[in-house]
């Protein structure tokens, strides 16, 4: 069990490191390296569009790997998704720029981002279920599954921290020419390590029992649409607040903050330090959800996001490092309330025979729309101005969607993951 936990956590860290190093450099380098023929504003918008491409591909990964994960198992699929992510990241690191090979460069970049999106789209559901199902008899599934969410945050922390260090020890020209490539290329070594880890773990005992009792279904996603429509809507609505706020704070805000005198290194240092504060809050929120229920911390986080947006953007626009840092910490505190219990909640919404598809589909569609498109919409809305009101309103809308998901979820959840025999299992016919 401990080996499975360790492999899930480390593998998730590696995958999200690969996915988020692109997010870190999207507004700092990608626009110049691959869209140098465009104006600065158009280049930034194009960079955010390639970032969105990775998010928009995530539902494809959720559908394909969700189906495979429910049919053949969690372990093998998690290994495949890790390989996809690592190969695409390495490819990005060695990809020639627009000046070297012209329009071919951004085309290949988009393809690599789509591959990354497909890979990470299959990662979340499997990693969450490996934690929840290996700990199926534990009273602290919220805490255990929050470690998966924390692993994703660690991946971003390592990505932003690595880029912050490289930016600090290189000149601006060196960073934009070759410095940003170092983490992408180095990810090949993480891929080998993660592959070794995941190849040596045991399959989920809950899935094995489901397979032994012949409770696997041929088309799990269709089964979900037929028997669990409300659960599916909840799985889509709950992550919206987290997805939109995360993208605004960690992608758009980095570009927005530069107009107030912050350097790239300072903004990366802020987001890295704020992420370090965020991690214990995230795990603590998952643990609290085991004591008071999942809905309370999620609701508090959703309301907090809606309110804090009107403080965060003025704090970032103040030009003060400490006030801006306070703004980032406040956003992460709200995200922690929503995101910490989310994995546990989603893992309990669906029975094991459709669990991988159920957890993956709604979550990935939510992140594709709210996470991938948010920076693009934000940039198009305020495009280089200091008018922060539209993005604050976007945070209000995102928090409201999550709160609506909480209201709709009443009476749902707490699927019995300890039901490892057909006589105990909840099936569509017995619903």
UniProtKB/TrEMBL annotation:
It is found in: Cell membrane. It comes from the Bacteria. Keywords: Cell membrane, Membrane, Transmembrane, Transmembrane helix, Transport. It is a multi-pass membrane protein. Coiled coil: none annotated. The keyword Aminoacyl-tRNA synthetase does not apply. Gene3D superfamilies: MFS general substrate transporter like domains (1.20.1250.20). The chain crosses the membrane at residues 7-30, 42-65, 77-95, 101-122, 143-166, 178-197, 232-255, 267-289, 296-315, 321-342, 354-376, 388-408. The keyword ATP-binding does not apply. Residues 4-417 form the Major facilitator superfamily (MFS) profile domain. PANTHER family: SHIKIMATE TRANSPORTER. This is MFS family permease. It comes from Rhodococcoides corynebacterioides.
